[in-house]
Amino acid sequence: MLTRRTLLRVPVFSYFLPFGRPASGATRRALLVGINEYVAAGQSSSDEEPAAGAHATASAKIQRSGFNNLDGAVNDAKLMNELLKVRFGFSSSNVVFLRDRQATRSRILQEFQKHLIDAAAAGDVSLFYYAGHGSQVKNLASEEADQLDETLVPADALAGARDIRDKEMASLYRAAAKKGILLTVVLDSCHSGGMSRGVWNQSGKTRYVPPDPRPVSDPDRDPATGKKPPDAASMGVLFLKAAREDQPSRETVIIERGANGVATEVKHGAFTAALARVFQSPMADQSVEQICERVQAMLASEGQVQVPICAGRNRARLGLLGQPAGLGASIAVPVLDTSNEGRIRLRGGYALGLATGCTLIRTSGQPVRLELTRVESWRSVQARYLGGAS
Question: Where does residue 153 fall: left (phi above 0), alpha (psi -120 to 50 degrees), or beta otherwise?
């Protein structure tokens, strides 16, 4: 976070150049999923059928054991939503946000297909973010030694819906890549390294769910060709994942101070919280590989055992949204409102690494200087007018 009296050269109004400028005419879209609350067993679900391409076994009627709800997954998705809009220039109309019970198996898959693939053209940017439980399921037809597919756990999993397996997601990733879409996938869940957040301890909740006891039979190879499909990372899809395949993904607590100055504890995934701190810095326009290394260092310094990983054939030279890294850009701090007393409220706060005492200078148009007087939250800050820049 910036220290007191740090000089940050940014435009003040909404005409700004966000990080990772897209190609002319390119559109940025995002699908954000955050699940704290899971539908209880016994409640209705329309997703009790096996996934397309998979064959359920005779044990398909076995119900999985219960698991705990989470605390920070929805906060993670909200924070990512704010970062994408303020830091990366995403339009609200192009962001689909599924939280808690909205994030059923069918809805996640449908929105991914409709919003991130069907609506996008070659050269457009699509980002998928998931915060919630992760798990595994036995795949009797898999050639892997453990025969386990990694999964994302949808909100209606306890109501009978099957998890979303890594092979199902990979099919969507490949479809986006084949269309020429710049796709980035960010996963804050356990087993995300192959693709679970549970009980609070001194290190915070882990996002872990025991494997679904209902196995599937889904061959790794295409029955028509006998070949395995290409890996999405080799096709240009970029991945940032909270932990290696065999590691937990933990939740943590961040202290936020509201407009009244009162400090409150806000729960987040440790990975997403660290990722947000990276994007607060002036060096946020780095390659995916550099971003991952910085997040790794932050979590290690906090004593976290999880090691985030990244993938993608161009991860060493491309930024988060598939743009060449290191282009440099302005940081947008739009004005939200003003008062007759001269107080100015800006959109940004901790999400942009702003601190009380920072001076903001508009670098285009008529010179203007503002001094930050109070950081209200991740999303807003108060300032006072200092006059024209000298």
Answer: beta
Classify burial at 379, counting beta carbons within 10 Å of its beta carbon; exposed 0-12, middle 13-18, buried 19 or more: buried
Domain span at residue 372 reads 1-16+330-390
Token pair for 192: 């995300």
Output the six-digit token pair for 346.
């800006």
CB 48 within 8 Å of CB 64: no
Give the pLDDT band of residue 123 (cuts 50, 70, 90). Answer: very high
> Which CATH number goes with the domain that contains 290?
3.40.50.1460
Tokens of 3: 């220290």
Note whether 244 and 342 are same-domain residues. Answer: no
Q: Tokens for 281?
A: 């810095």
Q: What is the pLDDT of residues 79-101, one digit of tens each?
A: 999 999 988 889 999 999 999 99
Q: How many domains does the chain have?
A: 2
Beta strands 148-152 and 164-165 are antiparallel
Can you give the length of the chain in residues? 390
The token duo for 160 is 């009978």
Global pTM exceeds 0.90:
no
DSSP bridge partners of 371: 359, 384
* pLDDT per residue as tens digits for the range 17-55: 344 545 546 899 999 999 999 988 766 544 444 444 555
